[in-house]
Amino acid sequence: MLWTSEDTYHEEPFELEADLEDAIRTVSADLFGPNRFYVDVKKKIELKNKAINVPDAYLIDLSSIKKPRLYVVENELAKHNPLKHVAVQILEMSLSFEATQRKVKSIVKKALDTEPETRQQCENYATVNGFGNVDYLLERMIYDNEFGALVIIDELSEELETVFMSRFKFGVEVLTLSRYRNEEGDRIYAFEPFLEDVDAPVGVIGTGTLGVGKATVDPSDIDTIVVPAREDGFQETALGESRWYKIRIHSSMIPRIKYLAVYRVAPISAITHVAPVQSIEPWKDTSKYVVNFSENIEELEKSIKLIQKGKIKAPMAPRYTSHERLRNAKNLDEAF
After folding, report:
1. Which pTM was predicted?
2. Which domains are delineated in the chain?
3. DSSP of 271-290
4. pLDDT at 166 over 80
């Protein structure tokens, strides 16, 4: 139940997958964030006349001005035994995607023809960022990137999350979406936006101008994860064991992470150390990870301090940035 002083909302479970898909369309702008477009189309992708999966949708991700991405989307209800069903679907989609990239491009291109506003956004992005046109943009999204999957589900169990995060060799992102309803029939939805803690747009699509909007590191440049640490954990684990564990990391980010930086909480309130990463591995039988350093963690010449009343608040969970940006930062506001 969700309660406010003015109303009470009770959970309204999705009965059908179609209900979940309606909810996704309703909240898509906020669910996926700026410069990402949900292409709602179901088409069979065949491999030598054998149909092996039916993706529910595709997500066009134009949040990076350098490296646009395409995610294959699977929508699922928890009551449909997703552990077996979704895991198989994701694996089959990865095989199909790699073997039939030309067909995937054709499907997405035809889908964009039925969504003129989204197609225009893609045209604007392609023109501004040197991709020429939508046809070439789709080629670069499909041929120049590793396979990426997005699962949208109403309820995520620990077991299923562990499978998604640590059992596949490619990135699988997961979003949970639930809905609530009051006695008058008004609905509200609960979710965490897609990759909200990872990136933000560098420019504004469609303006013809780069660098407009919130200044941040381009998502394709991210190579560093910053973790908050208490003093005892920092001394014992980061310094003593040359690793950091029980971290939640987006699985699609793992191949990019080359460094781990430590933000030491109050009273220090600063990023003080950074270490190169040797490997990132599942942490025991959980959906979290352990980051192993390739050498002892290094103390920065000048710590990167939190600014009181600055735009960046003290990190309470892992955050992402680039090593170059971190090295040049004078304070936390400049680090992200």
Report:
1. 0.85
2. 2-191 (no CATH), 222-335 (3.10.590)
3. EEEEEEEEEEEE-TTSS-EE
4. no
